[in-house]
Amino acid sequence: MLRILVVVLYLLPVSRPVHAMVENWTVYDLGSARTEAVCVGAAQETFEEFAMTFGARKMARGSWVVYAWGLARGQYDAIITCALASGGTSRATLIIYAEDSVLGSIHGERIWNLFSDHNQRLGDKYVNDALEQHGLN
C-alpha cells in the first residue's frame, strides 16, 4: 500500500505539499530537485536544521536517501528519498512515521518548508556553479 502511495504522489505535479496518510505513515511529495546530489544535500540540511530546533536521535545519509530517527524527542522517524526522474533531475518524497498522525502532519509541513528552502538554495548554487564553470557568469 505504501508503494502505491509513493508512486501516485510521484506522478502528481504540485507546488504545495501533497500528502497521504495510512495508519501511522504520512507520505509527502516534496517536488523535484535539479540533481540527485542537490536533493540528497537538501534532505540532509533539512533534517539537520529540524534537529537543531526539535531534536533528533540519529541521522544517516545514503546515495539517494536520508534517514532521521527519533525526531522531536523520539516521537517520529522520517526518510527523504531522492528518486531519479527525467532529464537527470530527482524527485523527493518524505515519509514520516508518527504515533500521533496529526502532529506527524504538522512536522511534515515544517520539514516540507525546510526542504523547499534548502532545495531552492542548493539548486541555485548548482546553476551558478555550472555557469561559472563555462565562463557564462
Primary descriptors:
137 residues; alpha+beta; 6 strands; elongated; disordered N terminus
Description:
With 137 residues, this protein is an alpha+beta fold. Helices cover 48% and strands 31% of the residues. The protein has helices at residues 2-11, 36-54, 71-74, 101-133, and strands at 18-22, 25-33, 58-61, 65-70, 76-84, 90-98. A 6-stranded antiparallel β-sheet has the order 1-2-6-5-4-3, sandwiched between helices. A hairpin with a 2-residue loop joins strand 1 (18-22) and strand 2 (25-33). 33% of the residues are buried. The model is unreliable at 1-16 (pLDDT under 50).
- Average predicted confidence as pLDDT: 85
Distance between the termini: 47 Å
The helix-strand sequence is: HEEHEEHEEH
- Rg (CA only): 15 Å
Brief description of this entry?
The protein has 137 residues and is an alpha+beta fold. It is 48% helix and 31% strand.
Topology:
Blueprint: H1 2-11, E1 18-22, E2 25-33, H2 36-54, E3 58-61, E4 65-70, H3 71-74, E5 76-84, E6 90-98, H4 101-133
Antiparallel strand pairs: 1-2, 2-6, 3-4, 4-5, 5-6
Helix pairs in contact: 2-4
